[in-house]
Amino acid sequence: MTQTPVTLRKPEATDGFALNELVERCKPLDTNSVYCNLLQCSDFRDTAIAALTDEGDLVGFISGYRPPARSNTLFVWQVAVDSRMRGQGLALKMLMTLVKRVAAEGVDHIETTISPGNEGSEALFKKAFRELGAEYETSVLFSSATHFNGHHDDEVLYRAGPFAITTA
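-> structure tokens emitted (168 positions)
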């Protein structure tokens, strides 16, 4: 498969609407409001990464934040990769680039939630944890019965770290 060249960068507020469209194309991801996506691309841009083609199409995005009580942690909220970009390692490339960026600011743990059965997300994060040399643990963060009234699968928390990024 031919690799499509992409540029990885911090998002800009002008990416918010394109992000909303990207997430809508990436079923089964939960969609957020356009306003939420605008905030992800502006107020949370330091913990997010956008992948754009040479034509300027947004084809990948990772949104995250640093929980106030755990400033050494990057919580990855959502990973979206356009279907035409899948199988090229884009999600891992974005994640590792983002982790390297925030590690320079004291981040040494990663958290995310993954619904049971989401094999793609499990594989992505387990591969990233291996590359970082980080052990991980899991626990149910939001249960289907308690938090979603049975209308959404459990959200299982994956927490990995500590890790150290070396630049050699």
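The helical segments are 16-25, 34-41, 90-103, 119-132, 144-147.
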